[in-house]
Design brief:
single chain, alpha/beta, Rossmann fold, 8-stranded mixed beta sheet, 5-stranded parallel beta sheet, globular
């Protein structure tokens, strides 16, 4: 299937008419695994004056529901690509790519497990940093495939009395402020840093965080791993100049790279109605599930200034506060135990597992262990303009207050009617019953009869 109904293609070049007044042209420079573009992304209009359009990934499990193995496989492929480039050796990955692109769940799973076995022959002591919110799971999956590495993801969460070790801006984002909440000691090394993002457009965000890291904890080697890389020659020259000036190495590896150009007007507002209709005719069974016994509460962060309290509800295994190399197996075991527990609650129908914002990897990993006919994606802070037409990335959407923080709006996209029997809605922090009422209404509206609210803390406040 072509990415949009009005896309046109020629070798190494493709043009997309996203809307009548929005056109994106791509010039493909490198596609090392010869991945079909339609497997990588579809396109949509953003509600953002800074950036008019969005490459909606078909691999991440963010805006589009996917088999939960797909984003994990994507991370593993990026990890393998990194080792291939670092060693300067060409590998025959035909079998890996064929499994990766398979629509057969069993083959997809077997291919992913084979990839993990292959990755065990490599090791690195790198510090991996995933970018919030879209690449928190992508980065965690890269960490999962790199023996010896440590991991932290950036966050938009503001926690009272916790001083970020890094702060920087993602300039074209809907929410620009980014921070890193690991201990100071986590970055106070000379180990190489691997930054993981779903897409590089100009590279400014990556240079912003590299600059902050290098100012505080200088080192020699930085790498950026991404699915897509759209930097122009001017942007690439800016990287080279910065690296030469700072006397460091910056390597960039991606699954697809090229140059994009845009013509048209951006949207500052959307005419789409994101409100979830009230539906009193349908009944939804709500079940609260407590997974807190399998996961570790993040009670405090130590720093040079002493101990900083963290408000209740955050869990350690997300990577928001930093994960050491030796924690990989315990996280795997916790997710397997949680997956086994949730598998016992399954009906015989199709299930949708939904992460919340930055909370992507742990629900995704658990979803991959819950049996057959399970799909996964997550909510987002990003407003995107839905259009119900064939080939357009975002077909429908809704908006509601984040149950964990009512000050923040979350969006959910691409949930079709009458497709899922049950929904597993994952939350990290304690919430009240009324906070999940929009999700109850969503289930009514979409014909989902069972809602499982899955909490990593001690359940809801007032069930």
């Amino acid at each position: 299937m072509k990415n949009t109904a009005t896309s046109t293609y020629s070798p190494n070049k493709e043009t997309y008419m996203i809307m009548n007044n929005m056109k994106v042209e791509l010039q493909i420079k490198d596609n090392p695994f010869q991945l079909p573009l339609e497997a990588l992304f579809t396109m949509a209009a953003r509600v953002n004056k800074k950036r008019a359009f969005l490459f909606v990934s078909n691999l991440l499990g963010k805006h589009v529901p996917v088999h939960p193995i797909v984003p994990l496989f994507t991370s593993g492929l990026l990890a393998l690509h990194y080792f291939q480039e670092k060693e300067g050796k060409s590998m025959d990955l035909t079998d890996v790519v064929e499994d990766y692109l398979s629509n057969e769940p069993e083959r997809l799973h077997q291919g992913y497990m084979a990839l993990r076995e292959r990755l065990k022959s490599y090791e690195t002591d790198a510090i991996i940093i995933g970018f919030a919110e879209t690449a928190t799971a992508l980065g965690h999956g890269v960490y999962d495939g790199m023996e010896g590495s440590s991991y932290v993801h950036t966050t938009r969460e503001e926690i009272p009395d916790v001083e970020p070790v890094l702060t920087f801006e993602e300039e074209h984002s809907h929410a620009v402020d980014q921070r890193c909440l690991a201990n100071e000691e986590f970055l106070a090394t000379n180990q190489p840093v691997i930054l993981v993002d779903d897409e590089i457009s100009t590279g400014k965000t990556a240079l912003n965080i590299i600059d902050d890291i290098h100012t505080k904890h200088p080192r020699k080697d930085y790498t950026i791993l991404s699915i897509l890389d759209w930097r122009t020659e001017e942007h690439r020259e800016a990287f080279s100049r910065y690296a030469a000036e700072m006397e460091i190495n910056i390597h960039c590896y991606s699954l697809l790279s090229g140059v994009m150009s845009f013509e048209g007007e951006s949207l500052s507002t959307s005419s789409y109605d994101y409100e979830i209709p009230n539906d009193t005719s349908e009944q939804v069974k709500v079940n609260w599930i407590d997974l807190s016994s399998w996961f570790r509460s993040e009670d405090c962060l130590s720093s040079e200034q002493g101990n900083s309290s963290v408000e209740p509800g955050y869990i350690h295994e997300t990577g928001r506060f930093g994960l050491a190399a030796q924690e990989r197996d315990s996280i795997e075991a916790a997710c397997q135990s949680a997956g086994d527990q949730l598998k016992l609650t399954r009906t015989e129908g199709s299930a949708l597992c939904l992460g919340t914002g930055e909370l992507m990897y742990i629900p995704m990993k658990i979803a991959s262990m819950m049996g057959e006919d399970v799909h996964y994606h997550s909510s987002t802070r990003s407003p995107i303009h839905p259009i119900d037409k064939e080939g357009y990335a975002i077909r429908n959407g809704c908006c509601y207050a984040n149950p964990e923080d009512s000050r923040v709006l979350h969006y959910l996209y691409n949930i079709p009617s009458q497709q899922y029997e049950e929904l597993y809605f994952f939350i990290e922090k304690p919430v009240e019953n009324r906070a999940i009422q929009p999700i109850v209404e969503l289930c009514k509206n979409k014909g989902i009869s069972n809602l499982n609210v899955v909490s990593f803390s001690k359940g809801s406040v007032d069930q």
